[in-house]
Specification:
CATH class: Mainly Beta
CATH architecture: 7 Propeller
CATH superfamily: YVTN repeat-like/Quinoprotein amine dehydrogenase
Helix content: under 10%
Number of domains: 1
Number of strands: 12
Structural class: mainly beta
Radius of gyration: 15 Å
């Protein structure tokens, strides 16, 4: 996603023209943002794992705006079987968790788009065992 050049001001990141956004996930569950321009790389926001969340992040997709805010949401697949959707009001502020569902198997790949309908986007995942569960844009249940 092309954003703008980043400049950190306290806890908030200000985005300027022509920066690129890099999203990353860690084995201990952190979700973060880096902003890169031709001169440097700046750290953006970081979302710490929740109290009950133990799964490392295996995959990230940011192709679809499920929440219709004008900014693509971040869809995360974790090794504990959690599928999470994070939404942000602006690219500079850390996104908030708006959807979580547990499918009970470690997730290896995640994507989103129009799969079963031309009106509503779906989340499709592949598990390490090879299953391809499809998740509609509905309320989910947290992993135990």
């Amino acid at each position: 996603m092309t954003l703008g050049k980043a400049q950190r001001t306290g806890a908030k990141t200000t985005v300027k023209a022509n920066a690129k956004e890099i999203l990353y996930g860690t084995a201990n569950g952190y979700l973060g943002q880096l902003l890169m321009d031709t001169d440097s790389i700046h750290r953006g926001w970081v979302v710490e794992p929740g109290m009950n969340r133990t799964g490392g992040i295996h995959c990230i997709s940011a192709k679809v705006d499920f929440t219709k805010t004008g900014i693509n949401d971040i869809v995360v697949g974790r090794d504990d079987g959690s599928i999470e959707v994070y939404a942000a009001l602006t690219p500079e502020i850390a996104p908030q968790l708006v959807y979580q569902k547990c499918i009970g198997e470690s997730i290896s790949t995640i994507d989103a788009g129009f799969v079963t309908s031309t009106v509503m986007e779906d989340i499709i995942v592949q598990t390490f065992s090879g299953k391809l569960p499809l998740n509609h844009n509905q309320r989910g249940q947290p992993c135990a």
